[in-house]
Write a structure and sequence with these properties.
Helix content: under 10%
Mean pLDDT: 92
Distance between the termini: 42 Å
Largest sheet: 6 strands, antiparallel
Shape: globular
Number of strands: 10
Order of helices and strands: EEEHEEEEEEHE
Structural class: mainly beta
Length: 198
Amino acid sequence: MAIKKYFANKDNTITNAFKIDLTTRATDSNMGLSDILETFSIYGQASSGSTELERILIEFPINKILTDRAAGIVPPSGDVSFYLNMYNAPNNQTTPKEMTLVVRPISVSWQEGTGLDMDEYRDTVGGNAGSNWVNSSKGAAWTRQGGDYLTTPVYSSTLPTGVEDLKINITPLVEGWLDSSINNYGIGVHFTSSQEAY
């Protein structure tokens, strides 16, 4: 069995987390050029009922897969499986056990942006191109802050210790992108709704 890897052509982390002052939210921050992606859910850090979320946006080069399929490099539909593989980046932060991550198709176009700062959230979109918690792109707001997602298909994976790599079979979604029955705006990766403090 042959394996071929395709890497995302754009990604971003968007957040409504509090900045270091625990008063101002970082909803305008952009982390499109960071070398890692993060998702989290924090409850009660700024006050007893405060909530903070971070979500991942990823888009893949479907045109490259289509070209490879036409050239016979990628087998026809029904003879191939597509997996989302994301690798844990070890860190010194608290990691939740038994967390469930969901993968949902994004329903609108979005911009990656050029931000890097994942600690103090100093890189904001401002007048530049990029997505954040509020906007999908410069001058275009998400319908719902935190991203717009299709209701189906939805994929999920539970990570028992929280430090596992994520591997999910998303074949029906990729085949939908390839046959244009689903618009390719990529995917969002975040905690399941029952685990998100929202």
